Amino acid sequence: MPTHRRFLATATALGTAAVLAVTGCSTTNKTASAPGGDPSAAAQVAVGNAGPLSAAAAMASVCGDKPIKVGLVDGLGTNSWSKIVRAEIEDEARKCPAVSGVEYVAGRGDLQSTLAGITSMASKGVNVLLVIPDAGPGPAHLSALRAAANAGVTVLPIAADPQGKPGSDYFDYVDWDTPYLGEVWAKWMIDRLGPDGGNIVMLGGPAGNPVSQAHLSGIKKVLAGAPQVKLLTDEPVTTNWDPAMEQQAMSGLLAKYPKIDGVISDYGAAATGVLRAYQSAGRPLVPIATTDDNELSCGFTALKAKNGGYELATVSSRTWIGRVALRKGVAVVNGKADAEPSRLQLDLFEDSTGGSGGAVTPDKACKADLPNDAPPSSQLDTAQLATLFQG
Questions:
Q1: In degrees to the nearest 10, what's the CA dihedral of 216, 220, 222, 223?
Q2: Which helix (H) or strand (E) segment is 203 a member of?
Q3: CA–CA separation, 336 vs 25, rounded Å?
Q4: What pLDDT shows up at residue 5?
C-alpha cells in the first residue's frame, strides 16, 4: 500500500484537530475543508484575504531529514501567474533543506503534454508531485494523477479541480473555494449596479477549464436571486488568460452588446485587456471584478478620474497556494500532520469602494516599484518579484 495512502487517515485526524486549535489567529476566519480534501468536513480556520496566516503552517513544522524530490506540472505555464506560482513553490522548497529542488514541466495548454509531464515525473521517482490540471476539463487529468499516486507518489492537484476523490485518486486537492469566489464577485457586482441592475459578462481562461466553470457556477448561484442583473454570457468567454485575447474578446462583446454595465474576469493580468477594449471602443469604464494585478491597482486612480462609473474589486490571485500544497506533501513524506485546510474561502483583497471588511483600496495595494504583472498579494518579497520579472 503506497505511503501516502497509509498516512491519509492519520493526517486527516491530526490535521483537523490542529486546525481547530489555531482558529482565531487572524481577524478573518472563513470556512474551509479539513485536510484530506473532504468539503463536508468543515472547520473554522484562520485565513486572511491574501492567504493563510497561521504560524502553525510554517515549513519548519513539517520538514525532516528524509531526502525529498519535488515535481511541478503546470497545465498552462505560459503566463505571469504560472511564473509566480512556480517561484513561490521554489521559494518554499528552499525552506526545507531536505528538498533537493523542484523539477518543472509546462503543458502550455496542451492536455497530452500535461499528461505526459505527470507520467514523466512519476517515472523519475519524485516523492511529491504538484499538478495544476487546467490543460482541459478536470477529469481528463485523472487517469495520469491516479497512476502517479498508485506508483507511490504523493500527488496534490492545486489551483484547478480535477474532480476526483482525495485519498483515492490523489492525496489531496488544495485550492481556494472556487465557486465561493464566483459568489464573492457576483455579490459585489450586484451591490455596484444597485436596484436597477444591468448587464454583465464573464471572461475566463482556456475553453472548458474547470477553474472558470466553477467560478461561473458561483456567479450564477448568486444571480439566481438577483433578476435585475442579467448575465449576457452563458459560458465563460474563452481568453486563455491572455491580455491580448481578452482585449479581443471584450471588443467583440462590446460590438455585440450596446449595454454592458459590469465585467467579471477571473484573471487580473488578463483583465487589463478589458480596460483597453473599453478605451478603444470609446466607452466609459464600468465596475470590474477580478483577481489582483499591480497594473490594475496602480492605474486605478488615474482611470477613475476619467471614468466616474469605474470601480475595482479583486481577490488574491493565490499564487501562494502551491506553498500550502508543498507543505502538505512534505508532511506526508515525513509522517507528520499539516494543520492547514485544503480549501480556503477568500473574501475581497481589494475594493475601490472601501465597502468590504478587510479589503484595501487600490492605492494601498499598488506596489509602484514592481512590474505590472506582479500580484500585490504574492508572498514573494519585493526583491524576489523584481528579480523574477527581470529574468
A1: 130
A2: strand 198-203
A3: 22
A4: 37
Are 172 and 130 a contacting pair, CB within 8 Å? no
- Write out pLDDT tens, residues 26-43: 222 232 333 343 332 322
Average pLDDT rounded to a whole number, residues 149-173: 96
How many CB atoms lie under 10 A from the CB of residue 86?
21
For residue 183, the one-letter residue type is E
The answer to whether residues 96 and 330 touch, using CB atoms and an 8 Å cutoff, is yes
* Site of grid cell 486546525: 19
Distance (Å, whole) CA 222 – CA 235: 16
What is the 8-class DSSP label of residue 235? S
Q: Rounded CA gap, 140 and 351, in Å? A: 36
Give how far Cα 184 sits from Cα of 87, 103, 263, 264, Å.
Answer: 28, 35, 14, 11
CA pair distance 164, 262, nearest whole angstrom: 34
Helix (H, G, I), strand (E, B) or coil at 205: coil
pTM for the whole structure: 0.81
Average pLDDT over residues 255-268: 97
158 backbone dihedrals φ, ψ, rounded to 5°: -135, 150
Q: Which helix (H) or strand (E) holds 28?
A: none
| Distance, CA of 36 to CA of 15 (rounded, Å) | 9
Q: For the chain, give the percent of residues with pLDDT over 70.
A: 85
Contact 388, 370 (CB under 8 A): no
The string of pLDDT tens digits covering residues 208-226 is: 888 999 999 999 999 999 9
Contact by Cβ (8 Å): 340, 267: no
Q: In sequence order, which ranges of the chain are alpha helices (DSSP H)?
A: 3-22, 80-93, 111-123, 142-150, 178-193, 210-223, 243-256, 268-281, 294-306, 321-333, 362-365, 382-390
DSSP string, 77-120: --SHHHHHHHHHHHHHHTTSTTEEEEEEEE-TT-HHHHHHHHHH
Report the distance separating Cα 341 and Cα 184, nearest Å. 20
pLDDT digits (tens, 9 = 90+) for 362-384: 999 999 988 888 899 999 998 99
Per the CB < 8 A criterion, the answer to whether 85 and 322 are in contact is yes
